[in-house]
Amino acid sequence: xxxxxxxxxxxxxxxLLMVIIIIGxxxxxxxxxxxxxxxxxxxxxxxxxxVFKQEPIEIDTSSKKLQTYPEYGTQYATIQIPxxxxxxxxxxxxxxxxxxxxxxxxxxxYFPGEGGSIIYMGHNSQxxxxxxxxxxxGNEIKVTTTYGEYNYKIYDMQLVKETETEKLPxxxxxxxxxxxxxxxxxxxxxATQRYVVYAELEE
Length: 203
What we know:
The protein is of the alpha+beta class. The chain has helices at about 1-45, 95-100, and strands at about 75-80, 85-90, 105, 115-120, 140-145, 150-160, 175-185, 195-200.
């Protein structure tokens, strides 16, 4: 009887190991396709009003620092976050089509160099902002635009609800870069929380 129980336990362990090996093999061979499928599910599940929407800002032209502004939907910068090996294109706009290509820049916020609030957003996919939880205060964020380079230092990280738009305030007293993604980072489907990283321009 004891021998039979041992044999049964060994059979179960062997079966579990085989299942783990098979699943691991499938993930290694189809990992990218699985990631794309999850991203597609997330995109389909996002409501049109699920991102932080800001009213378009009225820029005081007397203090305008940029000679020209990018057209909506075009890439005008790249964002680099060395701590988590991020190097992505930044597009002006925040539609789902734009977020498929890279990082979106909320049309309701200022541009780097204008001295106000800048809001960037990206998916929590493996190739975008999945590793946001690894960021710490003091980490660097570099934004290279078509008109200059801007270095920011992270000073805070917050988990907020999608309805808490006051957590991403639009102001022009200080240049602050706010970058967010959906939370939990491994979420599949619609998420009601956002993980926001706050960084200030280094003088």
